[in-house]
Write a structure and sequence with these properties.
Helices cover about 40% and strands about 15% of the residues. It has twelve helices and ten strands. Helix 5 (about 145-160) links the parallel strand 5 (about 115-120) and strand 6. Bound molecules: ligand PBG. The site of ligand PBG has 10 residues, from loops.
Length: about 325
C-alpha cells in the first residue's frame, strides 16, 4: 500500500472543501441546447417522448432562444422541421433560403447577434422524403459524393443565414473537407465546422425521430458507425481533424464515454459529446416514475461526460442545468 495513513474522507468533510478539490467542472458555458423549429405550426408542439422539449414556431423559438442565452448556455444547435409536403428526394427545403431552418437562423442572428454561438444541423434527413441523411443513387443507396455536394449547399445557406457553426451530422466520407472548401470559396472563412465525427448507429435516437417527424423507414448502418468500433471512431476523428474540423463530436454520449476519452486524448481541437434524445428520455421516464431524482441524475450524467473528456456537451437539459448550476 502506497499511502497507508491517508484518509481521503478529510477532503470530503464540508461542501466548501469538496468544492475546493473538485476535479471536474460543469458550467453553463459548456452546454449547448439543441432546439427544433417547425414550419406550418401556429403553436409550439410538445414532443411526447421528450418531456419539456418542443417543436417551436418561429416566434416561440425566438423567445426560448433568448431565455437560453440569458440562462448562460454556451450555444444553440438548431434543427429544422419542414412541412411534409415540402420534403423531396433532394431535401430542397434545407437549402432554400426561405426554408424553415434558414429563416429561423436569420431570426436568431438578428435577435442575438454575437451574444451566443449559433449552430445549425447540416444534414438532409429532416428534409428528404425518404428520411435518409443523403441523396440516393439509382439503386437506392446513399450516394456519398453527391451528398457532399448537397452538404456544401446546406452549409453555405446556413452560414449565409447567420450560423456561426455548421454541424455536418450525416457521416459521409470527406464531408468536412468538402464543406470547408465550399465555405471558403463562398467567403465564409470564419464559419466553423463542428463535425459529428464518431456518430454511432444508435437506438438512442428514437425520440429525435419523433422530434423531427422523420420519414425514415430502415436504418443508417451504411453510414453511421457500428457501436462496437472504438478504434474506427478514433480514425474518423483523425480524418475529420485532417480535413479541417474545428470541433469534433462523439454521439451518443453515455454509452460511448470511452470514445469521448479516446477523442480527448488524440484531438488538438475541442471535443464535444451529444447526450441524445434517448438518453434524455429514459432519465425523464425513470424520474417521472419516482425511481430516480431527475436533477441529481441529469447533473451526474453531464459531469460524467465532462470527466470523460468532453469540452462541450450538447444536452436537452442545457437551460435547466444552467439554472441548477447558477
Ligand atoms: C441527423 C441527426 C440525428 C440526431 C442529430 N442529428 C438523428 C439520426 O442520426 O438519426 C439525433 C439527436 C438525438 O437523438 O437527440 N440529422
Amino acid at each position: 500500500m502506497a499511502y497507508p495513513r491517508h484518509r481521503p474522507r478529510r477532503l470530503r468533510s464540508t461542501p466548501a472543501m469538496r468544492r475546493l478539490v473538485a476535479q471536474t467542472s460543469l458550467e453553463a458555458r459548456h452546454l449547448v441546447l439543441p432546439m427544433f423549429v417547425a414550419d406550418g405550426i401556429s403553436e409550439p408542439r410538445p414532443i411526447a417522448s421528450m418531456p419539456g422539449v418542443y417543436q417551436h414556431t418561429r416566434e416561440s423559438l425566438r423567445r426560448a432562444a433568448a431565455e437560453a442565452v440569458a440562462a448562460g448556455v454556451g450555444a444553440l444547435m438548431l434543427f429544422g422541421v419542414p412541412r411534409d409536403e415540402d420534403k423531396d428526394v433532394h431535401g430542397s427545403a434545407g437549402t432554400d433560403p426561405d426554408g424553415i431552418l434558414n429563416v429561423a437562423l436569420c431570426d436568431l442572428a438578428a435577435d442575438l447577434g454575437d451574444d451566443t454561438v449559433l449552430m445549425a444541423d447540416t444534414c438532409l434527413d429532416e428534409f428528404t422524403d425518404h428520411g435518409h441523411c443523403g441523396v440516393l443513387d439509382g439503386a437506392g443507396r446513399v450516394d456519398n459524393d453527391a451528398t457532399n455536394l448537397r452538404y456544401v449547399e446546406l452549409a453555405v445557406a446556413q452560414a449565409g443565414s447567420g450560423a456561426h457553426v455548421v454541424g455536418p451530422s450525416g457521416m459521409m466520407d470527406g464531408q468536412v473537407a468538402a464543406i470547408r472548401d465550399g465555405l471558403d470559396a463562398a467567403g465564409f472563412t470564419d464559419t466553423a465546422i463542428l463535425a459529428y465525427s464518431a456518430k454511432f448507429a444508435s437506438g438512442f435516437y428514437g425520440p429525435f425521430r419523433e422530434a423531427v417527424a422523420s420519414s425514415l423507414d430502415g436504418d443508417r448502418r451504411t453510414y453511421q458507425q457500428e457501436p462496437g468500433n472504438a478504434r474506427e471512431a478514433v480514425h474518423e476523428i483523425e480524418l475529420d481533424i485532417a480535413e479541417g474540423a474545428d470541433i469534433v463530436m462523439v454521439k451518443p454520449a453515455m454509452a460511448y464515454l470511452d470514445v469521448v476519452r479516446a477523442a480527448a486524448d488524440v484531438a488538438p481541437v475541442p471535443v464535444a459529446a451529444y447526450q441524445v434524445s434517448g438518453e434524455y428520455a429514459m432519465i425523464c421516464a425513470a424520474a417521472a416514475n419516482g425511481w430516480i431524482d431527475l436533477r441529481t441524475v441529469a447533473l451526474e450524467t453531464l459531469t460524467g461526460i465532462r470527466r470523460a473528456g468532453a469540452d462541450i456537451v450538447l444536452t436537452y437539459w442545457a437551460v435547466d442545468a444552467a439554472r441548477w448550476l447558477s
